[in-house]
Amino acid sequence: MMCDLSVKRLAHLRSLYPEVEGSVDYAHMLNGVNLDAVIIATSVKSHFILAKTSLLAGKHTFIEKPMASSARECEELVDLAQKKGLVLMTGHTFLYSPAVKKIQEIVTGGDLGQIRYISARRLNLGLFQKDINVAWDLAPHDISIIQHIIGEQPVTVNCRGSAHITPGVEDVTNMCLTYPGGSTAIIQSSWLDPRKVREMTIVGSKRMIVYDDVAALEKIRVFDVRVDHPPHYDTFAEFHYAYHYGDVYAPYIKQEEPLKTECQHFLDCIRDGTVPLSNGTKGLELVRILEASSESLRLGGAAVDFLKWTRNSSATHAAAPASPTVPVGVKRVKRTRSVGLGRKVRARVNLNAAS
User: Fold this and answer.
1) What is the model's pLDDT at position 231?
2) Rounded distance between C-alpha atoms, residue 185 and residue 88, angstroms
3) Architecture (CATH level 2) of domain 2-92+259-280+308-350
4) pLDDT class of 181 with cuts at 50, 70, 90
5) Comparing C-alpha atoms, which of 253, 254, 141, 144 is closest to residue 198?
6) Quick count: other Cβ atoms within 10 Å of Cβ 343?
7) Residue 90 burial (10 A CB sphere; 0-12, 13-18, 19+)
8) 88 with 78: CB under 8 angstroms?
9) Residues of CATH 3.40.50.720 domain(s) within the chain?
10) What is the pLDDT of residue 312?
11) Given this structure, which CATH class describes domain 95-249?
């Protein structure tokens, strides 16, 4: 099943997938056709209300990135999913990419040594958004990969940016995350670049990786390159850096479609009762980083103490008034449905083109 507010868009989708039913009535989709799971791929501002309504109706819910417009909304969705015993998953698609899986395997195996810094560039000409800036639009991909590789929450978040096209909506940003062990991550995002760039460099104490997602072949290249400083010396003249230049190799990567793998993972988690790799808590953590980056932008790029920010933010959210519950005309369904291992799970894509 698929649902969209735009009749024109829905007609186009029906022409592509004539076997799939379509509707413009979200309430009917949730309560009238016996669905088990819902996929929400709409504008960010509508993620929370559509997801909350889906969870209240007892549906396993997948939400495209970022999970919601605020950490407060994410916390509410996570709590609701836990109370209902439902799978809540967010669309951090690159975690299901064979290239990122290989990078994680290399890092976990210790081949890179200690991670010193990660540099990510995600640049393109457009697509311009009006309700979120470029950091909220593009950086979630890179943040999710970096968080997955480093496995820790940042200590501080800095972000600077400029709005050249739409006043108040940054179309170029530079974000810096620092981590407890001294590692740093620099994320450059832009809607104003003539070339499509999807590149990440991971620098370790032993080796380095360059990941180019745009490359048709050899998306990952491992450089046996490093810089060492002398352990001890008596005079400045004796001090010399040691540069090591070794081979460059491209590990084999199995060709798989990340989006297909991600969707299959969602269904598997529903059938097996397991926690998704990109679960609701991961989506919440990412949105907290985005909120801290917005605060840093407001402060002109000043460092935001992430741990302190998270504590204060959670306290503020706890004291805040309750947010709207369900759209007009959507009836709450209190009964939840369990999905057996042998059942075919039916999922619906909600494409809200009119938002």
Assistant:
1) 67
2) 28
3) 3-Layer(aba) Sandwich (3.40)
4) confident
5) 141
6) 11
7) buried
8) yes
9) 2-92+259-280+308-350
10) 79
11) alpha beta
Alpha-carbon span 261 to 277, nearest angstrom: 12
| Predicted confidence (pLDDT) per residue in 310-353, tens digit | 887 766 655 444 444 434 333 333 333 333 333 344 444 444 43
HSE-CB at 71 with a 13 A cutoff on CA atoms is 23
CA angle at 141 for the pair 135 and 145, rounded to the nearest 5°: 125
Q: Are 10 and 2 in contact (CB under 8 A)?
A: yes
State pLDDT tens for residues 34-77: 899 999 999 999 999 999 999 999 999 999 999 999 999 999 99
The predicted pLDDT at position 310 comes to: 85
* Six token digits for residue 53: 């309504």
CB 296 within 8 A of CB 158: yes
Q: Indicate where the chain has its CATH 3.30.360.10 domain(s).
A: 95-249
**85 conformational bin, left if phi > 0, alpha if psi -120 to 50, beta if neither:** left
